[in-house]
Write a structure and sequence with these properties.
15 strands, single chain, four-stranded antiparallel beta sheet
C-alpha cells in the first residue's frame, strides 16, 4: 500500500536538531566549499561510500534515533546525495518525491528520507519547501525536468502541485528533518550571499524497497542485526 499517513504522521515530516554541532557542521561545510569551488560541483552522489565525514553523518546518534522511531531498529542507507547550491547559480530542485524513480521504489511504511543541513538555509538561499500532508495520496506520476545543460543532470519532477500549500523550512547548520518518502518537496535556487549545502539520505528497513531495473541496491547497514 502506498497511500495513507505513513510513519511520520499527518504532515509527513519531523524536524530535529543536533545531528552535528553548529560548529562542526560549519567547519565541514567550509571544507566542502573549498574542495568543490573550482568546478562548482553541485551534486555528489553517495558520499557515504567514499568520504569518512559522510559515513559519520549517516550514523549520527541523533539521526539514527529519529529514524528508529519511524521505521524500527534495522536500518540501512540506500542512497545519499550531497547538494551544493552556489550563490547566484541557477539550481532549482523541482517538486518531487524521494521514494520512487526508474531504478527503485521504496515502501513508505519501511523507509524514510532525511535531510541534514551543513549550512544555514533560508528562503533566499534555497531552503527546503514541502507540501505538508501530500504523502497520504501516494506516489504520483513523474517525469524528467527539461534539459538545461547542467552537469548535475536532469532531476525527476511531479506536476499538478498546489503551491499555495507549500511551507518553507529554514534551517541552521546541524539541523535535520525526516520526510515521508512520498512527501512532495522542492527547493529554489540560491539567491543569497553564501553557499547552501545539505546531505539527503534515504534509509530503508528490511523489505523496504523494490528494485525496478534489476540493479544491485548496494545497501549500507547502519543499525540493527536484520541484515
Amino acid at each position: 500500500m502506498t497511500t495513507g499517513l505513513g510513519p511520520l504522521g499527518p504532515h509527513g515530516i519531523r524536524r530535529f536538531r543536533g545531528w552535528a554541532t553548529p560548529a562542526a557542521a560549519t567547519a565541514r561545510a567550509a571544507h566542502l566549499t573549498a574542495r568543490y569551488r573550482a568546478d562548482r560541483t553541485e551534486v555528489v552522489r553517495n558520499p557515504h561510500l567514499t568520504a569518512e565525514w559522510a559515513r559519520h553523518a549517516v550514523r549520527s546518534p541523533v539521526l539514527l534515533n529519529a529514524v528508529r522511531r519511524a521505521i524500527g531498529p534495522d536500518i540501512a542507507v540506500e542512497n545519499t546525495f550531497l547538494v551544493i547550491k552556489w550563490p547566484g547559480h541557477p539550481f532549482e530542485v523541482p517538486w518531487h518525491q524521494d521514494g520512487i524513480n526508474d531504478r527503485i521504489i521504496l515502501d513508505p511504511r519501511r523507509s524514510v528520507a532525511a535531510w541534514l543541513a551543513l549550512t544555514n538555509a533560508d528562503e533566499a538561499s534555497g531552503c527546503l519547501r514541502v507540501i505538508p500532508g501530500s504523502q497520504q495520496y501516494g506516489y504520483r506520476q513523474y517525469g524528467t525536468e527539461p534539459d538545461a545543460g547542467a552537469a548535475r543532470g536532469r532531476a525527476l519532477s511531479v506536476g499538478g502541485i498546489d503551491t499555495a500549500q507549500a511551507q518553507a523550512l529554514p534551517s541552521q547548520g546541524g539541523d535535520g528533518c525526516l520526510m515521508d518518502v512520498r512527501l512532495v518537496h522542492s527547493s529554489a535556487s540560491n539567491t543569497g550571499a553564501g553557499v547552501r549545502i545539505g546531505l539527503n539520505i534515504r534509509f530503508v528497513a528490511p523489505a523496504g524497497y523494490s528494485v525496478r531495473d534489476g540493479s544491485d541496491p548496494s545497501l549500507y547497514p547502519v543499525s540493527g542485526t536484520g541484515w
